[in-house]
Amino acid sequence: MFCVVRSSMKFIAAASIGIVALMASVGAQAGTGAYMQTGKLTSQPIGHYEFCKREAAECNIVSRDTRALSLNNSNWQHIQAVNLSANERIKPMTDMEIYGVEEYWAYPTTVGDCEDYVLLKQRELAKAGIPMTDLLITVVRKPDGEGHAVLTVRTDRGDFVLDNLTDEVLRWDETDYTYLKRQAANNTGRWVTIESQDNLLVGAVK
């Protein structure tokens, strides 16, 4: 994926924004649009498939409990801190520059492509106790048509996106991406489609 250009926007003092401010911004009860609507099983990205062959344990997590994370001040600030820390620590670089191949998903140490940031953030949040069922690798299309990967965090306040192109953690419907597919919440080795909001609106009036 071509996803290494950083946004010029810097999210200042991310960790200072607490759950009270978040609730005020999304409302006391998140509406239907706050959550991605997923569809049928779909193809696994080739980079993730190859990653799973090397890191099988990361892709064999199956759960019947797919309740979304209950968001509180502590885990919200940790989510923001992990996003900011990874974005600052890892230098953006393409897989071709790093590995000499078009697509190679791996945990980064100093440099990485967008999906590498996602893997790092997913691992760090999982180590902090957030279930993998709520930490989903997601493939999107940017407004310029290029592919990109972000991490979706499923919460009871909506689905939030951690992105290497911005330090701000946004709810998915506050971004300008087209959402294509993501890991299934009940199986880290499977992927499902994401229904576009336009399609959902059309279906609602039929």
Number of domains: 1
Beta-strand residue fraction = 25-35%
CATH architectural designation: Roll
Q: Output the strand order for the largest sheet.
A: 1-9-8-4-5-6-7
SSE-based structural type = alpha+beta
Strand and helix order: HEHHEHEHEEEEEEH
Helix content: 25-40%
Shape summary: globular
Q: Count every helix, treating DSSP H or I runs of 4 or more residues as helices.
A: 6
**Main beta sheet, described?**
7 strands, antiparallel
Write the SSE topology.
Blueprint lengths: L18 H8 L11 E5 L3 H9 L18 H17 L1 E2 L2 H5 L11 E2 L1 H14 L7 E7 L5 E9 L2 E6 L2 E6 L6 E7 L2 E8 L2 H9 L1
Helix pairs in contact: 3-5
Features of the shown structure:
alpha+beta; C8orf32 fold; 7-stranded antiparallel β-sheet; two-stranded parallel sheet; 30% helix; globular; disordered C terminus; signal
